[in-house]
Amino acid sequence: MTQAPQAPGALRATSRATIGDSEFDRDTRVERREAGHYAADLPAGWAIGDALNGGYLLAVVGRALGDALAHPDPFTVTAHYLTATRPGPALVRTDAAPPGRTLSAGSATLVQREPDGTETERLRVLATYGDLAALPGDVRTSAEPPVLPPFEQCPGAKDHPGGPEAGPPIAGRLDLRLDPATAGWALGAPSGRGEIRAWFALADGRDLDPLALLLAVDALPPTAFELGLSGWVPTVELTAHVRCHPAPGPVRVAITTRNLAGGFLEEDAEVWDSAGRLCAQSRQLARVLTR
Amino acid sequence: MTQAPQAPGALRATSRATIGDSEFDRDTRVERREAGHYAADLPAGWAIGDALNGGYLLAVVGRALGDALAHPDPFTVTAHYLTATRPGPALVRTDAAPPGRTLSAGSATLVQREPDGTETERLRVLATYGDLAALPGDVRTSAEPPVLPPFEQCPGAKDHPGGPEAGPPIAGRLDLRLDPATAGWALGAPSGRGEIRAWFALADGRDLDPLALLLAVDALPPTAFELGLSGWVPTVELTAHVRCHPAPGPVRVAITTRNLAGGFLEEDAEVWDSAGRLCAQSRQLARVLTR
Lengths: 291, 291
Prior knowledge:
- 2 copies of one chain form a homodimer.
- By secondary structure, the first copy, chain A, is mainly beta.
- Chain A contains 5 helices and 18 strands.
- β15 (259-261) of chain A pairs antiparallel with β9 of chain B.
């Protein structure tokens, strides 16, 4: 790695948040009720429009599974998004399979109560957890990290044409810096290519961990924008693989779409850490609801 | 598409099996017992070593979900493989979420009884189904199909150095033709590149449907072989997206691995039909257990 960006918190605050004591940790907190059941209260700060972000929700459910399962880290997590999750109370119910020696699998569902008291299922999750720290250090990869300008030279929420507060609520929780070469859509000139690249960090400077990587894979604007489509691109399903603990500092995220057909598209994400390692991969199937 | 292979059944049989009346249909049959529960009897013909193939098992569970859910076709299916499935009786239990207008999600688990009567969970599945025939016909893709020699020029099981019966039992169910350029591992000369390409068809000439695509994405030898690794590469998790009904005839399958790290690798598959459409994509996380 030749790029060595300053951590974003260092640019504007003397006290950076830390893993365990940060906005992300507080907002993804789950409280154990009975065996395998967890209560959460989901703040509106992670919304885009009326619905909470899918990657944020995956981190909430991922935290509950990390408590319920015998191993600490998400290795592979799949979420199917059934209905839009609203800010407010939610319940996560987990169902662990008998653990293996090095891996544990489990399912989870996140539900919310309607005003009339009935329960609505928001997402279902299936995951296998392990211990990233216990893996051998071998790396043999032909993958190349995305190339983008240094962190400080990429525009962020403060550069939004409508002002720093013009983005959705979640924009204030993140320090997302888009590669200008893939941000044409924001100025009405999409490239037509299905790729967006960005630096990703948390706004309070908290370093990333495996749970925050579940957020990172679903935090960029949809590739559909750069394909010239507007409107909502709801995720049907998202699967993320976490491959290593990310090194400190912002990560580089590249999302790509190759096949838009029949009103659906896949969106692949790669997350590269400051040490030049591919620390997460994801793919989602999304629906294109054009305006 | 300029390549127009003959269907494999046409090469050696006057009566080709058909969708609904074929070995694959009989061997993935499930019998409804009570609401959402299905009995299956899994033949040894789909084994590799002692364990049944993961893609075959996904098709069995996929057939049960197709009956249990309100929509017919798998759009996105994830399986987590917990323990090795043996030939013999099995039970599939499904759990459907309330259906949406165009999509239905559901979970399933496949279990087998041990000789002492206890139940062991083999795989857990989470899926969203829809109706492929109801999708609009638009295609806007930057993906390119893999290039490989014509079907008839690629070696199959009959060309196995040890004779036509030397492969695992599943080899007799498939008509898999490997691109010689990616089959060096079979002759002790792996390319070192993480890619294998092949034509895929069913041995009895039955055309492919969405369930058979779930088999196709996990039917090739592992990319690890072409990376020069030997031994077992068990799948931890596999997610497949089915994007369209495949056109008749063999499909082209390309599998690639970019990142082998910490003893795990991802293996991506693409399946292209004879009409030149990308009809399925998959990614699996697998473990490398080197000899």
